[in-house]
Amino acid sequence: MRRRWLFADQLGPHFLDTPEHPVLLVESKAVFRRRAFHRQKAHLVLSALRHRAAEGDVRLVRAETYAEAVTEPLTVCHPTSRAARGLVRRLPGVEMLPPRGFVTAPQDFVSWADGRDHLRLEDFYRYARRRHDVLMDGAEPAGGRWNLDADNREPPPRGADHLDVPPPPPVVEDEIDDRVRADLDRWQREDGIAFVGNDGPRLFPATREEALARLRHFVTERLPSFGPQEDAMLSGDPWMAHSLLSPAINLGLLDPLEVIEGAESAYRAGSAPLAGAEGFIRQILGWRDFIWHLYWYFEPEYRAVNELAAHRQLPRWFAELDARAVGARCLADVLAGVRDRGWVHHIPRLMVLGNYALQRGWRPDAVSDWFHRSFVDGYEWVMTANVVGMSQFADGGRMSSKPYAAGGAYINRMSDYCGGCRYDPKVRLGADACPYTAGYWSFLARHEHALAGNHRLRRPLQGLHRLTDLDAVLAQEKARGSRAP
Ligand SMILES: Cc1cc2nc3c(=O)[nH]c(=O)nc-3n(C[C@H](O)[C@H](O)[C@H](O)COP(=O)(O)OP(=O)(O)OC[C@H]3O[C@@H](n4cnc5c(N)ncnc54)[C@H](O)[C@@H]3O)c2cc1C
Ligand code: SF4
């Protein structure tokens, strides 16, 4: 039997044909030389790789490059980046198998997508529900509705500083983690390898056992509360009722199908409401697979598209996660979350970080690279459609129907940030002007021509012309530029 080469994001049993399959793992330092990753991400990936190396028939090779480590005939599951796929194809004696770790097969996605004018999540999600018989009662969606999003957009509970949800069980570090930490310290000291963000106790699973414990806890204790405040933010509760499973799923420690089955079983058993189970399953069977397939379906040049001609470089305070430089309470808190944990949930990513970058006209490829490096669950395949397409609208709308630009009113409604902020979300001009509110109008004015045909923006664009102080707002935001707000 040929040894199975597992990349560091292919660590779970579903990447093998039998539990006894001999394995090759490669730990390459060169990966960390190319980019300054978050320190906790480097720790998590190396810890997961080395924990996996301690199980079963595994050969772990430490090498500068992957090519050096490949010295025998191997099989490998389709890797998750174009560069890795190119390498696998070039190496003699390496047989590439179809991808694993996602639900829908590539050929199914292509047959679904070919010939469509617009690729939209909702259509793909319904296709995938039917195709994989998930949350279906015969030919109909369970409960009679495909989409329970309308039930899942509640603001945070008034006056609460956290959601009343049991926290995820902590992971306990061991001597492998200690050795990883010592190695990373040495690489920083002696090899000039740089990281961003703060080191800290490992927060996310590095083993299959830890990942399964988190999954079980989520399904029984947290999923029942997942739905309603899915989009809400609280300064005292970074986790809310989210699953925190993305790092484990993306490392390959959990099979997305077993996560989906866990959520559906909880709904069928009556322990989780449909809105929560549907909302959660939509994230994985829908969003995660959709984003994965778009990475391969769109042409390689897609990652460099820049339809809104956003050419500003990322400012240093943002690139270096310097939250202390920021006075805007929402942005300071979210940036501090990235610095201290390498993770914030979906809405801070989209509506605080991505929204700010979009409003300020930062380069989409630089924003994408920043997300990739700074998040514990960041991988190239996740970035392209999430950041370039959805968050920065740099593809002109090939995968989403409008840009995710919003002013302070949205953040005020969906969080507790604005109360304690030096800015006022209702004010767009003057010393109290909220940078998101003023930035929103400035974004719309800058792209009025490009966005004119977008029917979802008709009313905001009409509103733009009713602003009597527009010129002054635009001058103010031009002067603010990319400075820390
Ligand atoms: C600008 C931006 C950048 C993002 N970067 C990443 C990233 O680097 N890695 C990443 O895994 N997700 C990314 N996402 C998607 C999403 O924000 C995270 O998957 C989610 O916040 C992870 O936390 P969770 O596990 O608690 O998610 P939950 O809210 O509990 O959702 C369950 C699961 O659904 C999946 N999921 C949900 N939405 C997406 C999505 N849009 N794309 C891919 N998977 C999704 C994840 O596997 C997640 O674990 C990004 C989204 C945006 C808007
Ligand atoms: S007022 Fe503006 S900057 Fe301050 S927290 Fe609210 S949205 Fe953020």
Largest sheet, if any? 5 strands, parallel
Mean pLDDT: 96
Span of the ends, CA to CA = 59 Å
Encode the helix/strand succession as letters.
Answer: EEHHEHEHEHHEEHHHHHHHHHHHHHHH
User: For the CA atoms, what is the radius of gyration?
Assistant: 23 Å
Pairing-aware structural class of the strands and helices? Answer: mainly alpha
> Can you count the helices?
21
Low-confidence stretches: none
List how many beta strands DSSP finds. 7
* Small-molecule components bound: flavin-adenine dinucleotide, iron/sulfur cluster
Approximately how much beta-strand content do the residues carry?
5-15%
What order do the strands of the largest sheet run in, or round the barrel if closed? 3-2-1-4-5
* Helix content, binned percent: 40-55%
User: Assembly type of the shown chains?
Assistant: single chain
Q: Report the principal-axis shape.
A: globular
Structure commentary:
The chain is mainly alpha-helical and about 475 residues long. Helix content is about 45%, strand content about 5%. It contains 21 helices and seven strands. The strands form two sheets. Strands 3-2-1-4-5 form a five-stranded parallel β-sheet. Strands 6-7 form a two-stranded antiparallel sheet. Strand 6 and strand 7 form a beta hairpin. Helix 14 packs across helix 18. It starts with a strand and ends in a 5-residue tail after the last helix. It binds flavin-adenine dinucleotide and iron/sulfur cluster.
